[in-house]
Design brief:
mainly alpha, MetI-like fold, 14 helices, about 70% helix, elongated
């Protein structure tokens, strides 16, 4: 008996699991690469949704991101003491849900306007810190030898110096501005990232595909950009999420010490002004409580998302 003809695609086409590389329209290397990335992102999102902690943290971050986006387009005249006429140090009420400060400014308005500054500083300083730390870690781990020794000794020097003392000195030298705060936080928080990335690169460079690419004469730039960096990105991204929380706390600490930009209200400057005006002795708990609660929730949310992401890329944590 003659067997029935097999249709193109075979059982794979019937099962809906056809390999993207076998499709004629997807044989382009670029399309294959983007298809694999979409599949990887889809797989990551399915795993991430299983983490209740991660989803709660993501929901909190979405809420604060919406608040910061609203603050960008909202009228900022509500934080100008010369343009407000509210009651001084009024407790929370229907008209002022978070009360007012000593100028009659709504604390809710201050919190909303401060969200964009605090999140902007945290994100921008983290990008700067990750760029420096990842570059140092990748170069040190991949090149090794004397370059590794020099970069790691410089990194160790940055780790042992108290970051707050160094940040205060740098902030006092550079001046009180938003850019100065971002620069200070970025250049004082990269050593930990450099150590972490270097350890990952030391493991990556021993893989067989790295040896094959090196034997074929691939230049160092190609090796780092195409092989080392993509495989180190999960660790870098997980550390980035946790570093944002540290950067926001650092901005709060520097602003609370009077080193922030007084012309741009952030959650840290709100706390600094509240303590300077004696909010604790005056019983104005709302002036301190609500900005402090926002800082706590944002830092907790970034930490929860970071731990959830770490469980995905680290199977040993996921099996616990």
């Amino acid at each position: 008996m003659q067997a029935p003809p097999i249709k193109p695609g075979g059982d794979r086409a019937i099962a809906g699991t056809q390999d993207p590389e076998s499709l004629p329209e997807l044989r382009s290397p670029r399309r294959i690469r983007w298809t694999r990335r979409r599949i990887a992102l889809s797989r990551f999102w399915r795993q991430y949704r299983k983490s209740k902690m991660g989803m709660i943290g993501l929901a909190i971050l979405i809420g604060f991101a919406a608040m910061a986006l609203f603050a960008i387009f909202a009228d900022a005249s509500g934080v100008d003491p010369s343009k407000v006429s509210g009651p001084v140090l009024a407790p929370p009420s229907r008209d002022y849900p978070m009360g007012t400060d000593d100028f009659g400014i709504s604390v809710l308005t201050l919190v909303v306007q401060g969200s964009k500054i605090s999140l902007l500083v945290g994100l921008t300083a983290t990008v700067l810190s990750m760029t420096i730390g990842a570059t140092v870690g990748i170069v040190a781990g991949y090149r090794g030898g004397a370059i590794d020794t020099v970069l790691m000794r410089f990194t160790d020097f940055g780790l042992v110096i108290p970051w707050l003392a160094l940040a205060i000195v740098l902030a006092s030298i550079i001046g009180q501005s938003l850019g100065a705060i971002i620069l200070v936080i970025g250049v004082t928080s990269w050593p930990g990232t450099a150590r972490l990335v270097r350890a990952q690169v030391l493991s990556i460079r021993e893989h067989p595909y790295i040896e094959r690419a090196r034997a074929l004469g691939a230049p160092n730039r190609h090796m780092i950009v195409r092989h080392v960096l993509p495989n180190a990105m999960p660790v870098i991204f997980a550390n980035t999420i946790l570093t944002i929380a540290i950067a926001i706390l650092s901005e709060t600490a520097l602003s609370f010490l009077g080193l922030g930009d007084p012309t741009k209200p952030s959650w840290g400057t709100i706390l600094e002004e509240a303590f300077a005006a004696g909010a604790t002795t005056l019983g104005a708990w709302w002036w301190i409580g609500f900005p402090g609660l926002c800082i706590t929730l944002v830092v907790l949310a970034f930490t929860m998302c970071g731990f959830a992401f770490d469980e995905i890329i680290n199977p040993r944590l996921r099996d616990r």
